[in-house]
Design a protein that fits this description.
Blueprint (H helix, E strand, L loop, with lengths): L2 H14 L2 H6 L2 E6 L2 E7 L13 H17 L3 E12 L8 E11 L3 E9 L5 E15 L3
Antiparallel strand pairs: 1-2, 2-4, 3-6, 4-5, 5-6
């Protein structure tokens, strides 16, 4: 199976079993080996007491992008460290796009960066994630 097809199949399987990403309304826009782009619309109930979107929402869409990108090579990968910087507020109604790219990949550890952009294309959050690659292949 070609690498692009494997990536798409793995992410489709993951998304099909990912109730949380589905609840968030995440849509998979693009999947390539080591990369993924997701989109979601921020709902009013995702806001905090400051009337801006809870930082966990940008984190969650970025984390899903990390999961899909890091598993797209067909090997189970789980996060072992993540961090996020919120650089612009997110508001209800914003359309967030999270784009994950692979920075480094070894046999056991890989590092990804995810940019979360608002509907204007501005970076709202920057996320970095390190994953452990278990060696177990995905069956797709």
């Amino acid at each position: 199976m070609e690498a692009d097809e494997l990536a798409r199949r793995v992410v489709a399987r993951m998304m099909g079993e990912d109730a949380f990403s589905q609840w968030l309304g995440i849509q998979v826009l693009e999947v390539l080996p080591g990369a993924c782009t997701l989109r979601m619309v921020v709902r009013p109930e995702m806001n905090n007491g400051f009337r801006i979107t809870h930082g966990g929402i940008a984190y969650c869409v970025a984390d899903s992008a990390l999961a899909f990108a890091s598993n797209s090579h067909g090997i189970h990968a789980v996060s072992i460290e993540t961090s996020i910087s919120h650089v612009k507020p997110v508001l209800a109604g914003d359309v967030l796009t999270a784009t994950a790219e692979e920075l480094s990949r070894g046999n056991r550890v890989a590092v990804y960066q995810v940019a979360v952009r608002n509907g204007k294309g501005e970076v709202a959050a920057l996320f970095k994630g390190t994953v452990f690659r278990t060696g177990k292949p995905w069956e797709v």
